[in-house]
Amino acid sequence: MGLLAASRLPDWFNDLDALVGVFGTLIGFGITFWQLLKTKRAAEAARDAANRTAEAARNNYAHFVISTCQRFVSEARIHVDMGRFELAALRCDDLAGQLVLVCNATPGAIDDAASLIARLRDFAEAFRKASRPLGKLSNAATAKWAKFLLELSGRIDHMHGPFPVIREEIR
Question: Measured between alpha carbons, how far is 145 from 136 in angstroms, rounded to an integer?
Answer without folding.
Answer: 14
